[in-house]
Structure formats: structure tokens, C-alpha cells
Amino acid sequence: MSNSLQQSIRHTLHEAQNILLLSHIRPDGDAIGSILGLGLSLQKIGKNVEMVLADGISNRHRFLPGSREIKRKVSKNFDISVVLDASDVRRTGGLAKDRLHDINIDHHVTNENFARINLVDPHASATAEILAEYMPEWGLLIDQDVATALLTGIIVDTIGFRTSNIRPKTLQLSARLMENGANLPELYQLSLVQKSIAAVRYWSPGLAKIQVEDGLLWTTLTLCDRENASYPLNDDADLVNLLTTIENIKISLLFVEQKNGTVKISWRAQPGIDVSQLATQFGGGGHPAAAGADIPGTLGEVKAKVLNSTITFLADAMHVSKT
Ligand SMILES: [Mn+2]
Q1: Rg (alpha carbons) of the chain, rounded to whole number
Q2: Distance from the CA of 319 to the center of ligand 1, in angstroms?
Q3: 189 alpha carbon to ligand 1 midpoint, in Å?
Q4: Residues 6+ apart with CB under 8 A from 105
Q5: CA 193–ligand 1 middle distance (angstroms)
């Protein structure tokens, strides 16, 4: 990353007094860890920081220091806005939506470079990893609370250091976060391993409906499944991570019916297959190995359309890899 880019981020953050931090809908550990990591460190140099996530945060991440400060709506005036871990502005869920954002920090290869200053590193395993790398250059201190938030982001986005985008630097930066006081085994347990009983009940119909054909695996979670399980959130309760543990699958695909008349799609792919292209075709985005989209329509319609495209896409990808 160029020095002038780092300097302009440093300058922009230090010049502002009131700073708005945003991340994406259905926030995962990286969205929450990034917003808290950057937010807490900015507070410590005297900035007024507003941290906003359109969907709020789940109980699972309430153990993180500062998590209670996260709001669902933008309430104050601010000098600059920083968007974290979001490949496009729509991902913020309509927060400050008519604004040209000041800083965009992300690791999605499909990032639209929508801000005035864009720090996008698709080689980073998590946005929190980018922050861990550059915050010292921006004159921001990584104390125990900040390190805890950032390491949580890295653990969750790499599913515990097992995704194909892990690099030596990920472990070096994570080791530094541990030296700064983050407790790896505890964070691993709290953010990744431990599940609520409602989450596991929600998985159950999803697991029962799994179908497999020619290296493609898919299943669905309906609003009815969610209600029966009393699962409180509109995400997939990490079922998609469990799907990636099933052997001999090239692509897994999860359809989650949403209350607003859309269906949330998640694709997961084996190394060598880039599902971010497929997600982009449906107005979404992501990484080569993990991508998603929100598509309007009924579950039946969306499922038919997306399954079809994914089958063709996988057949093409297999053909290319054979020739
Ligand atoms: Mn991320």
C-alpha cells in the first residue's frame, strides 16, 4: 500500500473531530471487530466516534469491549464517515446513503472503491487484519480492548485460521494482537465455537434439506424454520461454515429467506473456483472462496434461478480446470 494513501488516511482521521464508522448489514465478527477496533482507538485519542450497524449486533458479540456503544441509526452530525468491510455502499443498509464516504477500508475483491479514499486489500484475510497492519502507521494505539476486537475479526473471517487466504502475515499480525493482550483461545471459543441452542435448532431443518449433485451442495432456511427455532437474527447462524466441512463438495450454496421479500444467498467454494464473479452477477460480492448476494423474489424463484446459474458456472469451471 502506498505511503501517500496511508498518510492521507492518517491525516483525514486526525483532522476530524466527529467520526462516523459504518459496516455492513447482518454484521459478522469482522464487521463488528473492525468497527470496535478502529472506534475504540479513535476514542482514545479524543475523537467523538459514532459506531453504527443497521442490524445492530448479536448477543454472541456482546462480550466485546465497547459493543454496547454500537447503534442502529446515525444520530449525530459528523465530519467524516468511514465504511469498513463493505464492498459497496448498499451493504451499509441505507445508512448515510447519499453521502460520498470519506474512507473505505475493505478486503473484498469486488469492492467498488466508492469513497474519497479507498484502502482495499483483497489479499488480507479480514478488514481487521488491514487495521492491525496499518493502525500503528496512522498513530492509533492497539491496546488490549482494540486487540481483542481486531483478533475477533480475523478469527471469524478466517473461520479459525483455516480459509485459503491465510498468509504468514495473518499469523504475524495475530501474534502481535496477542502480545497486545488479546486472548486467542477465549476469543476463539466465544466468537466461533460456542453456539446458541436456537442457532443449532435453526441448523436442523437446513441440514435435513441438504441436496448434493455433481459436486454442488445446496440447502435452504425458511422464515418458518427460523420461527420454529426461535432464532432471533436474520443471518444463517453460521450454517454455511458447517456446510464447508462436508467432503467432496466444490461449491456449497445456502438460501436464507428474509422478511423483506428477498433471499440471502451464500456461496462457498473450494480453492480454484471464484464464486465472487457469480455473486457479482446477482448484485452481490465477496471473495473468491466466499461470496453472497441478496436477491428480491420468493425463495422458490430465487432458488431456481441461482441454482441454474451455479450449475452452469460450476460445469464451466470444471471444464476450464480440465483443459
Ligand atoms: Mn470481512
Answers
A1: 19
A2: 30
A3: 19
A4: 34, 38, 82, 83, 84, 85, 119, 120, 127, 130, 131
A5: 18
d(CA 91, CA 294): 10
Phi first, then psi: give them for residue 61, nearest 5 degrees: -100, 10
Grid coordinates of 185: 483461545
Q: Which residues surround ligand 1, an ion (CB under 5 A)?
A: 30, 85, 126-127, 157
What is the tens place of the pLDDT at every residue in 72-81?
A: 999 989 999 9
Residues of the chain with pLDDT under 50: none
CA of 166 to the centre of ligand 1 (A): 13
Alpha helices of 50-126 — where are they, by DSSP H?
Answer: none
Distance 92 CA to ligand 1 centre (A): 13
Inter-residue contact 15 to 42 (CB < 8 Å): no
Q: Where are the beta strands (DSSP E) in 29-87?
A: 48-52, 80-84
pLDDT at position 319, please? 83
In terms of C-beta distances under 8 Å and separation of at least 24 residues, what long-range contacts does 207-213 make, across chains too?
Answer: 207/239, 207/242, 210/243, 212/249, 213/311
Contact 309, 266 (CB under 8 A): no
User: Are 86 and 24 within 8 A, CB to CB?
Assistant: yes
C-alpha grid cell for residue 190?
466465544
Q: Using the structure block, give the residue that is written with the C-alpha cell 469451471.
A: 317
Beta strands in 7-47 (DSSP E): 18-22
Instruction: Note the pLDDT of residue 192.
Output: 93
Q: How far is the CA of 104 from the centre of ligand 1 (A)?
A: 13
Amino acid, single-letter form, for residue 72: R
Query: In whole angstroms, how far apart are CA 265 and each of 81, 144, 165, 283?
Result: 28, 36, 21, 11
Q: What is the pLDDT of residue 320?
A: 77
Separation of 32 CA from ligand 1 center, angstroms? 10
Which stretch of DSSP H or E encloses residue 306? helix 299-322
Terminal alpha carbon distance of the chain: 36
Neighbours of 12 (CB within 10 A): 18
